Amino acid sequence: MGQRVSKTDLTPDEVEYLSNALDLTSEEIMRWYGQFMHDCPNGKLDRESFHRFYKLLHQGEPRQLDFVADCVFNTFDFDKSGYLSFGEFLIAYIFSSCKDYQRKLNFAFQLYDTNQNNIMEYSELVYAIGKMHELRGLESKNIQGLAKEIFDRLDRNVKDGRITQEEFVLGCLFNPTIAPLLEPFV
Questions:
Q1: Which of 97, 124, 150 is the last residue of a domain?
Q2: What is the number of domains present in the chain?
Q3: pTM of the model
Q4: pLDDT tens-digit readout, 101-125
Q5: Rg, the chain, Cα only
Q6: Rounded to the nearest 10 degrees, what angle do helices 86-97 and 47-57 cross at?
Q7: Which domain CATH number covers 126?
C-alpha cells in the first residue's frame, strides 16, 4: 500500500518555493513545519492564535501589537480563509521579522495596500499614517495634511494620484523623514 499524504503535508514543490522565496534551507523549512504542525495539528493557524503568537515574538503595547498582528494576518491570509496555512504563516513571520530594510518597506506597502490592488491610494495612506501615529502614541492633529505632503512626495512618476510599490519603497529609502512615519517594524 502507498503512503497517504494528508492535506497538511508539504509537497517538495512547496518546500522549494518557500526555500527560494524566504532564503531558507529546506531543512529549516521542515523544522518550522514540524513546530507549526505540533502547535496547529490541523494545519491552520486562526487569527486569535496568531495574535497570541505574535505578541510572544514582538515587544510593545498590547493594543499596538494587536493592530500590527491584525494587519499582518490580513495581508498574508492570501486565500481569505480566516486561517493561515503553514506557508502563509512562514512568509508572514519571515517578512515581519526580517532585518533587510528594503524588504521591510515592501512588506509595509503590502500591509497598507488594504484593497490589495498593488497601488497605494490616498485614503490608504491617510489610514496608514493615522494608525502609525496611534501605534506610537503620537498626536494625530493633521493626519490629512501630513498624508497629502507624503503622498505628493511619493507619487513621483506622472503625479497620477497613485503610489506604486516601487515609488513607495524608493520614496522611503531616499526620504529618511518619511520612512519612520510609515514603517511599522522600526
A1: 97
A2: 2
A3: 0.61
A4: 888 888 788 778 888 788 999 999 8
A5: 18
A6: 30
A7: 1.10.238.10
